């Protein structure tokens, strides 16, 4: 039975990964300090092969026994969180990644870094292939996340090249699904909550900026395939189905049959104008592409939000 550590395991993506790995027969150690993750996300896991440890991975990580895989997912990931927690975000991307890599070296474990499409910043190339180096403002409000993840990629490659660690890097594009927090702050949870409770939908700017949204189960499948692959350079995982944020707001009004109105509020600083993954590499080396369409994905996310909001 492989033994796997998931840092950030009580978060949105982390909790889905823990479940997926348990289903694949892994013993899972879930580590989280619960600053943006939540025990509720893992409360339904009833499996003797699952263990939770409350720990901040920016501090030295001590794990008893062997580890075969480490998936490093700990980090605030919603813009409102990293704007609120800029230093913790920088620390977990830098010190947390260093600690997790040190642990991988000590345990001779395979290491997978959760990186992000934010490494491309406000991209000047569209869609974004892995070869694109990005357009990031290092000192803007989003720089704390973007640069932390860019550093995390750099140190991961350095551990791979210098110490021969078996590392992988996934660049995760916008993802949605059950277990996103009601107050997550990202577009889909905001719009769903607003539509379901009769509030105005807050579109930032004029809503012409684009994103491409991937359902969480597709993402997790892609990540697992990457973990099992022998590819060490970054791989985009996301859904290329690009739309404007205004279109997404309309879609959510339709999916919830809500009478809410759309209001336009100022665009946050450095908000990327476009984002769409080029997933040719994932298709080629992982034989992966997303399967869940937006209607299905929104339906299941809406169910989760209705349950959380007692509607
Ligand atoms: N956005 C919006 N209204 C909201 C939340 C987000 O218009 O209530 C916009 C945001 O400005 C961005 C896009 O939706 O252009 C996606 O934002 P999100 O926070 O989901 O993630 P990002 O892709 O910016 O990291």
Structural description of this entry:
By secondary structure, the chain is of the alpha/beta class. It has 2 domains: 197 residues, NAD(P)-binding Rossmann-like Domain (Rossmann fold), CATH 3.40.50; 85 residues, UDP-galactose 4-epimerase, domain 1 (Alpha-Beta Complex), CATH 3.90.25. Helices cover 38% and strands 17% of the residues. The protein contains 9 helices and 13 strands. Strands 3-2-1-4-5-6-11 form a 7-stranded parallel β-sheet, with helices on both faces. α4 links the parallel β5 and β6. α1 crosses α6, α3 runs parallel beside α4 and α5 runs parallel beside α7. The structure holds uridine-5'-diphosphate. The site of uridine-5'-diphosphate has 14 residues, from α5 and β8.
Q: How would you describe this structure in keywords?
A:
alpha/beta, Rossmann fold, UDP-galactose 4-epimerase, domain 1, 2 domains, two-stranded parallel sheet, 9 helices, 17% strand, globular
Total tally of structural domains = 2
**CATH architecture tag of the largest domain:** 3-Layer(aba) Sandwich
Task: Assign the CATH superfamily of the largest domain.
Answer: NAD(P)-binding Rossmann-like Domain
What share of residues is helical? 25-40%
Instruction: Name the overall outline.
Output: globular
């Amino acid at each position: 039975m492989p033994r796997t550590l998931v840092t950030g395991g009580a978060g949105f993506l982390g909790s889905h990964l823990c479940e997926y790995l348990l289903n694949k027969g892994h013993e899972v150690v879930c580590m989280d300090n619960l600053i943006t993750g939540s025990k509720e996300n893992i409360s339904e896991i009833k499996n003797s092969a699952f263990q939770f440890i409350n720990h901040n991975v920016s501090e030295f990580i001590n794990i008893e026994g062997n580890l075969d895989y480490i998936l490093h997912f700990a980090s605030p990931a919603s813009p409102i969180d990293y704007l609120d927690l800029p230093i913790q975000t920088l620390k977990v991307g830098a010190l947390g990644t260093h600690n997790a890599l040190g642990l991988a070296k000590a345990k001779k474990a395979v290491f997978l870094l959760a990186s992000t499409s934010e490494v491309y910043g406000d991209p000047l190339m569209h869609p974004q292939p892995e070869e694109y180096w990005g357009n990031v403002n290092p000192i803007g409000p989003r720089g704390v996340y973007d640069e932390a993840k860019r550093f995390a990629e750099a140190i991961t490659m350095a551990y791979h090249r210098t110490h021969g660690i078996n590392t992988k890097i996934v660049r995760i594009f916008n993802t949605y699904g059950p277990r996103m927090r009601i107050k997550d702050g990202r577009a889909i949870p905001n719009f769903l909550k607003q539509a379901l409770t009769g509030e105005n939908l807050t579109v930032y700017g004029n809503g012409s900026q684009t994103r491409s949204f991937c359902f969480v189960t597709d993402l997790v499948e892609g990540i697992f395939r990457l973990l099992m692959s022998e590819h060490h350079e970054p791989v985009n995982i996301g859904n290329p189905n690009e739309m404007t944020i205004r279109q997404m707001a309309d879609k959510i009004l339709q999916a919830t049959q809500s009478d809410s109105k759309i209001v336009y509020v100022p665009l946050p600083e450095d908000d990327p104008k476009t984002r769409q993954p080029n997933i040719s590499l994932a298709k080629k080396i992982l034989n992966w592409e997303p399967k869940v369409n937006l209607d299905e994905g929104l339906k299941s996310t809406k169910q989760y939000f209705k349950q959380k909001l007692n509607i």
